[in-house]
Write a structure and sequence with these properties.
The structure holds 2 protein chains of 2 kinds. Chain A contains 19 helices and 10 strands. By secondary structure, chain A is an alpha/beta fold. Chain A is globular, with a radius of gyration of 25 Å. About 3% of the residues of chain A have low confidence. Chain B folds into 2 domains: 57 residues, no CATH class; 229 residues, MetI-like (MetI-like fold, Orthogonal Bundle), CATH 1.10.3720.10. The chains are: A alpha/beta, B mainly alpha. Chains A and B meet through helix 5, helix 6 and helix 18 of A and helix 5 and helix 10 of B.
Amino acid sequence: MKRALIVCLFIALVVPAFATGTMEQSATVKSDLSVSSEEIALVGGGPFSKTVKITFLNSKPEITEALQAGCESFGKKYNVDIELYETSSPGDTLAKKYAAGEAPTVAIVDLANIRDLYAEKLVDLSNEPWVSLGGRDLGAVMKDKVYGMPFTIEGTGVIYNKTAIEKIIGRTFVPTDYATLDAFKALCAELQKGGMKYPVVLNSEDWSVNKTYQWIYAYQDGTINGAIQFLKDVYNGKTTFEDNVVFNGVIDTYDYFASVNINQADPLAADYDLNASYVAEGESAFWLNGTWAWPDFAPFAVEGMEYGICGYPINDAPAVQGKAFGAATKFVMIDKVNSSDEQKQAAKIFLNWLVFTKEGQDCLVSQCEIVPAFSNITVEPTNPFNVSLKKLINDGLLAEGVTYSPSDHRSVLGAPLQAHLAGKNSKMDIAKLLDEYWTKRLPKE
Amino acid sequence: MSIGRLDETGLPVERKLDMHVQKSRYRNAGLFLSFVGPSIVFFVLVFVIPMVFGVYLTFTDWNGYSNNKFLVGLKNYADVFSDISFWKSMWNTVRYSLVSVITVNVLAFFLAYMLTSGIKGEKLLRAGFFIPNLIGGLILGYIWRFIFSRVVVNLYSFIPLEIFKQSWLSSPNTAMSAMIIVTTWQYSGYILLIYTAGFISIPHDMIEAARIDGAKEPCITRRIRIPLMVPSIVVSLFLTLTRTFKVYDLNLSLTAGGPYDSTKLAAMHIYTKAFEEQRYGIGQAEALIMFIVMAAIALTQTYVGKKREQEI
């Protein structure tokens, strides 16, 4: 009897502790309700009378904390309770969430995810007010409808330490002066003579190595259409990578990078954080990477040193020389399957709030430190990589980025280029592999 | 007409006996269901239904999200057989598993032998060897990644041996060796416990009698201990084989399949296929083939092992 009583007591105490998820009432967000009529007109709605709970999946983990603060500000004003959670593999997480019937109301995802989901599960955002401000040009457009709001523009290029370079060469470093491989080689020779033994840093991770291919596509003529046309020609057997000037130019530069790589002795043992520190502290000058690297770079950045991003040096490609390439790399989608009308409305208002209000823009640019895609946002970027990217955009030095790769691009092509970096296969092996890959697949438009 | 014997209530005795037997059968069935029922329900829910559904998915073109799944017949299986990278990863898995099974079991057997021979502090040592098994594969992988990539190369300045010159994770052979070393380190403590139980269960008088008859230690081990340990060996081989065949977490955190996919094991390849490339049908077909290969090896090993078991 006594034992039974103890068991009952234990159950009575323990079960509710685990049951809070289902028993707990949705927390009521204390609303400020101090939204001006101008703002209501801008965002397309006012605060909700009853708290609306929405979920928000973020696949850019480095900005979760800053985004959380933005969600809270919005939530308080509009009486919306936003539950933010992060993932580094959005496809996998979305598959699980949809299978469980708990899809996030809003999600920051990759273009491939939008492609997979739009037909059955996403809200058509074509009539949203931000569409005309760059949302259609840079957004995820499927069958002429906008299903993903462009969240951030990221640039891929060569990150440089301006201060360290100028200290050795003794003159102002202008990246476009070294846009050809020959000029870049001469600069590196100068740096080596000045004591910088290895001027370049290359990553070893397959996702990073895989991005090298994107130079081949983006540098065909600097446009998405040009890249797609080239890949279609390969598919139809009209041309090959082996015969392509840009392919040869890109791989020649990559081979040169590998020869002056700080990780040259053991290139596949390169450590991402150490790589960041080499360039940040001036031990090396160039790092093949992109603007997304700032959160990893920042802890090593030295006060007073200037950093930036520039194009990929290449011979025989005058149309694109000196250009980095960039594109909207993350998109915001709204679910239509598991979300109520009220939740969808709250999600739409939230997106408008990010784009049209000062608070929202501050959240994007100053807190999350991203470059937004919308022409109405004039808040200047804060981190050096984004400042440099913005300058490239203004100077017309940004080629159109890659948005047409099939989802198996990294898993099929990443490893062979890693092997090339380690000296295990030749340029022609890579050319043959690319021919074989692209004769079986059409670029996704 | 014969109506047979009647009891005090006027019912035929045979009928009453039948009812009694039936009642007792119902009671037994109820008892049986109350014990086995929950297990059967969970077995069906978490094993049979997913298995059947998984087999069904191998005949579809499902991408993991869509509401629509179109039947494609045996196309996925045809794709699996032409997917060279899958068979490469299967070969990697077989190599890794075979060597790991040997190293884990030999080390665990040796340790168990030492730790049941009455040395000082054996309980503490048993616990110590078991601890790596308590650390999750992911964390373990990251710890060892640091050791192989950073600590080992720094050792070169003190011990200038060729093996310390480069990171163990940057060349295919050393990266696979690194995987096997970490697996051995992780699992041998767990398998050690099974062998320890086996050693303890060997009757001491049998060993004593052999010693009195003049048998030396190696002979006792070969002729008495090992034959009596066969049940433990069968279980240990089965556990290590199935665990190493399915490994994903350690593969991901230690080598991430690299360098250039040379240590990509089947589980990682299947995950990439199903979730990264969104080709769920092919991924599922590959998983089924892996399951069949693993089950065939493990069951053959168990069958052969069981035949060699000795009765005490």
